[in-house]
Amino acid sequence: MELFGQASHKVVVDVTASSAFLPIASFGYNCISKAARKMAFDTLAKERNDIKVLYFQPGIVYSPGFEQVIKQTFNPELKAMFQAVVDNKETMCQTGDHVGRVLVNYIEKDEFASGKFVNATKENDPEDIETTISKMKNVTTDKKN
């Protein structure tokens, strides 16, 4: 890849979410785009041993998008989960500064395997994807079936 030039340390970071792995009712386009991006980066990780791929989930960082989900989702469980975040921003959300420091820390330490998914928690204690998915499953599945 010409993009990296002569850099000796090559890392691609995909800032992602659980929707890359979980079907979430009313998040169809988001899930599709994140899953497609993940496949592209998985392929890059397999094809290029000189480039490390890191999937980074920042956790909950409040943004105006939360309000949009609350107003537009048809999934009552998802709406309730997002409303709880808005109602408890101080305890549930991380700051962008914190998330940035966690990401830089991962890249500087360079102790992750290419293709690794890491979830930065508020305590700066990363979870693996299996833990994240198990926490999200009850909230994100469409219980109409």
TrEMBL record:
<keyword id="KW-0521">NADP</keyword>
<dbReference type="InterPro" id="IPR051721">
    <property type="entry name" value="Biopterin_syn/organic_redct"/>
</dbReference>
<dbReference type="GO" id="GO:0004757">
    <property type="term" value="F:sepiapterin reductase (NADP+) activity"/>
</dbReference>
<protein>
    <submittedName>
        <fullName>Uncharacterized protein</fullName>
    </submittedName>
</protein>
<keyword id="KW-0560">Oxidoreductase</keyword>
<dbReference type="GO" id="GO:0006729">
    <property type="term" value="P:tetrahydrobiopterin biosynthetic process"/>
</dbReference>
<dbReference type="InterPro" id="IPR036291">
    <property type="entry name" value="NAD(P)-bd_dom_sf"/>
</dbReference>
